[in-house]
Amino acid sequence: xxxxxxxxxxxxxxxRPGLHPLLAGRFSTADFDPVHEVGDATVDVLLDAARRAPxxxxxxxxxxxxxxxxDPVHARLVGHLSAGTxxxxxxxxxxxANLAQxxxxxxxxxxxxxxxxxxxxxxAHLTVQAQSLGLSVHQFRGFDRAGAESxxxxxxxxxxxxxxxxxxxxxxxxxxxxxxxxxxxxxxxxTVDEITWARHPRLSRRPRAHPAGPGKP
Length: 217
Ligand SMILES: Cc1cc2nc3c(=O)[nH]c(=O)nc-3n(C[C@H](O)[C@H](O)[C@H](O)COP(=O)(O)O)c2cc1C
Fold this sequence. Notes:
By secondary structure, the chain is of the alpha+beta class. The strands form two sheets. A four-stranded antiparallel β-sheet has the order 3-4-6-5, sandwiched between helices. A two-stranded antiparallel sheet has the order 1-2. The two termini are about 35 Å apart. The protein has helices spanning about 20-25, 40-50, 70-80, 85, 115-130, 145-150, 180-185, 190-195; strands spanning about 10-15, 15, 60-70, 95-100, 135-140, 160-165. A hairpin with a 2-residue loop joins strand 1 and strand 2 (about 15). The protein has one domain (about 25-180): NADH Oxidase (3-Layer(aba) Sandwich), CATH 3.40.109. Bound molecules: flavin mononucleotide. The site of flavin mononucleotide (FMN) has 12 residues, from strand 5. Flavin mononucleotide (FMN) binds near residues 27, 28, 140, 141 and 185.
């Protein structure tokens, strides 16, 4: 501990004192409780958490299509899931399509250099908020982007960048259930040292790429 460190002993996750349990315990479940419902007030809280995220120039380049299981928006979203995703995501109480504004309307100009970055932060906010309410979030790319954009008349200056299933996990912690294995999420992470490009007084080391490469967890 240096003179400037907080006293982290006894705080947070045992493997990393100070790390918030919401972050330490988070995982992308593929085993959603198919009976649990996410209420409207909860949806409002999740969207409120998302909209409070920081963004470049406060551009807020995000928007969300939200379907609660059993409602027509949910059914329309389900219609555009990939076969693999369809095996687990529809059981979640909520499906959310995450949209980024990528262009200025009716132009070819980027709306913001940071549109995708900012959307990611908003979804991260939503994820941690959900976790605090006992809900799990599993983001995914396994859907037909063009089909979903056409379904919801998304104009060319917006893009459905990703989707997320949100609901109560049927398993309390990460487990290799058949659905989890099929979804191929993984707890494997590069270490703090590996992701640190430079930091005094430690020896700086050029970060190594994830050995599996993006999209191959
Ligand atoms: C933008 C994005 C796209 C993803 N796409 C998929 C996907 O198509 N299918 C899937 O099962 N998981 C998907 N994931 C979840 C990741 O595989 C998962 O976060 C990663 O393996 C780490 O696992 P963990 O979240 O359980 O810690 C995606 C996550 C993000 C952020």
